[in-house]
């Protein structure tokens, strides 16, 4: 059932302009969410088609992902609010941390060794919220995992194919801060994945980024 309003289930901060309902400027969020919870079951795209989901747009419709927007999206995930611009004097955001999700999945990142999000990720960890991150597509050699997926505050996710081989586009295990932070997905083929696209289309995409949302439903069983 479609929500009648989007209080506590949608947040488009900062440069996204605080839209009152979910928007997706390039389709990335649509297929990632579809891989997690897509329906109908007969199509075979959702790992947990009965799951409930919320969304926070850390990346804007213009193709960029400002650090401030990403930080605000992570903060909102730990304590969702009503859907309005917090800078608007008439906005009563009414945070409700009891509505926080069990898992916060992130299909974004870049660079290595960045501490930019450690504070908010530390808070989410203290709240016992599972946070997962895609590790990037620059692999094939050692030391190619991206931040924030290379932090020990999160579960970093990579891909293997149906023969349990690491994807050639993925990364190899990276040791950082004396903690192996990689979680290689071995439950399903992470190389060629059927996903949801904007406009109710279903397509096949041979990209390892698609393996990341597949880990979230199994993680919820932990």
Describe this structure in words.
This protein is an alpha/beta fold. The chain has one domain (10-220): Rossmann fold. It is 16% helix and 15% strand. It is built from 4 helices and 10 strands, in the order βαβαβαβββββββα. Helix 3 (118-126) links the parallel strand 3 and strand 4 (130-134). The longest helix has 12 residues, at 67-78.
Question: What are its keywords?
Answer:
globular, 222 residues, 10 strands, 4-stranded parallel beta sheet, 4 helices, alpha/beta, two-stranded parallel ribbon, single chain, Rossmann fold
CATH homologous superfamily label: Peptidase S8/S53 domain
User: What is the H/E string?
Assistant: EHEHEHEEEEEEEH
Question: What is the CATH third-level topology name?
Answer: Rossmann fold
CATH first level: Alpha Beta
Low-confidence stretches: 167-192, 200-210
- SS-based class: alpha/beta
CATH architecture: 3-Layer(aba) Sandwich
Give the beta-strand count: 10
Mean pLDDT: 77
Proportion of helical residues: 10-25%
Beta fraction of the residues?
15-25%
Number of domains: 1
Strand order of the largest sheet: 3-4-5-8
């Amino acid at each position: 059932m479609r929500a009648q309003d989007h209080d506590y289930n949608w947040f488009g901060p900062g440069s996204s302009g605080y839209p009152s309902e979910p928007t997706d400027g390039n389709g990335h969020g649509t297929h990632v969410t579809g891989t997690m919870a897509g329906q109908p079951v007969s199509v075979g795209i959702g790992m947990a088609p009965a799951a409930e989901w919320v969304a926070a747009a850390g990346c804007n419709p213009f193709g960029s992902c400002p650090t401030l927007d990403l930080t605000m999206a992570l903060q909102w995930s730990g304590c969702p609010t009503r859907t309005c611009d917090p800078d608007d004097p008439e906005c009563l955001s009414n945070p409700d941390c009891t509505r926080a999700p069990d898992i916060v999945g992130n299909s974004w990142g870049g660079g290595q060794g960045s501490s930019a999000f450690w504070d908010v990720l530390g808070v989410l960890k203290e709240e016992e919220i599972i946070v997962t991150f895609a590790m990037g597509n620059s692999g094939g050699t050692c030391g190619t995992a991206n931040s924030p997926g290379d932090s020990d505050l999160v579960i970093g996710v990579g891909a293997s194919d149906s023969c349990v081989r690491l994807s050639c586009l993925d990364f190899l295990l990276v040791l950082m801060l004396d903690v192996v932070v990689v979680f290689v997905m071995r439950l399903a083929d992470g190389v060629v994945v059927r996903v949801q696209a904007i406009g109710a289309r279903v397509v096949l995409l041979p990209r390892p980024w698609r393996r990341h949302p597949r880990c979230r439903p199994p993680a919820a069983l932990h």
